[in-house]
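For the sake of clarity, the format in which proteins appear in this thesis is described at this point. The fold follows as a row of integers, each naming the local backbone shape at the matching residue. One such record is shown here in full, so that the layout can be seen directly:
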Amino acid sequence: MSGTSGGRTDDGRERDEARDRDEARDRDAEGRARNARPRDGLGRPLPYGAEGVPRQPEGIVREPERSVAEAQALLDAGRPFHAHEVFEDAWKSGPEEERGLWRGLAQLAVGLTHAARGNARGGARLLRRGAGAVEEWRTHDGGPAAPHGLDLPGLVVWARELAAGVERGGEPVDAAARAPRLRGGAGT
């Protein structure tokens, strides 16, 4: 028998619809919801069946030097979204005392991603947040100026200058052309 309560049916249709939506979601091998749509170089979803760029595998534990090298290669290729995923892996798997550093670097990469997508406000905000996190890690957490060969002072300057330029111009930036140099000469 079907009835209503507060405008909702109690015959299970809502449960069935919710289950159907849940079953239609993309899932990884462990059953977690994962969007399997292909993505472009800036991480934006493309229609199913479209050719996207290869995704970064998640949850990879790398030595810090390898993380920096992989992230730099991705930044140079105009793929800051993917570089952010490398930094995120380092943040989640690295030593506790370095997590603030890697989180800040991930925020810088996401800020560049948003700036390249044309989201000037979000890009500038994340670039400044990442610069602040990197600077705070270095000064308050007693971190060295160049852990793993990273040019932290140069990255902070790069991020703040790019944030100001993005806000002034409002146009999408070329992610590859504006990519920072992680190990010195922090970019243009």
Remarks:
- The chain has a mean pLDDT of 85.
